[in-house]
Amino acid sequence: MNSQKLEIIDAHHHLWDPERNYHPWLRDEPQIPFRYGDYKALCRRYLQEQYLADSREYKVVGSVYVETEWDPSDPIGEMAYVAELRKIGLPSVAVGQAWLDRADWGEVLERLTGFDFVRSVRHKPRPGDMKTATRWRRGFAKLARRLGRFDLQTPWIYLGDAAELAREFRSVRIILNHAGLPVDRSPDELVGWRRSMARLAQEPNVVVKISGLGLPGVGWTAADNRGIVLTAIDLFGVDRCMFASNFPVDGLCASFGDIYRGFEKIVRDFTAEERRALFVDNARRIYAVPT
Hints:
Oligomer: single chain
Helix content: 25-40%
Distance between the termini: 28 Å
Strand order of the largest sheet: 1-2-3-4-5-6-7-8
Shape: globular
Largest sheet: 8 strands, parallel
Order of helices and strands: EHHEHEHEHEHEHEHEHH
């Protein structure tokens, strides 16, 4: 049996220390509504030591830190903290927090891009934000000129708006988080999810992170998620998909090993080159992760 660890670049994970830094959702009461339910288990220190223990079955050759809903009044403080973390190892690169409709967005963008490891920003748009002539969309235009990557997290019902955004801003690589959030796995909902994903996949500047597929109260299994994973890959193509853990958040649903063994099982019939693309190469290319 080959005991060599599989190399991965984790394209979406988090690190935090809520005792030191203010994350409203991890510190404030009552808890916010969350798709995985009770998340008290996340309200603790989770840094490289914990992450590397969770990912020990794999050889993590790079990683992408994604903003953690840190204090929204201090998006620069989060990246300054990440700069400290990087001195002792992971993460390789980062996705910063962005409020595209804020009056100071231009200044924030300039300061975020001053960190040489910031590759993208994430903002979860409200319904209607991505439509024409909104303040949010004007902010997106600034991002297009300055950064060129954007991490989009939105329910699949808004992917039509995302497709129009991608079509207008061809220069921006839009990185869809968590496969468009197919939370409801009922047949009718999955038909809608697939239709929306197919529309978005027509835009060549959109890629997708296959992550965040946990179901509340249900362990992560390849059987439950095979259809989602293979549909995303079929629609976007191998070269526009990448795997990610969403840890520690998805630790509410499964172990790190459960998730990545599930990915391995689902794509075991792919070529070695295709598997390497999904687990390592695409994330390295899309996020410019240093070797």
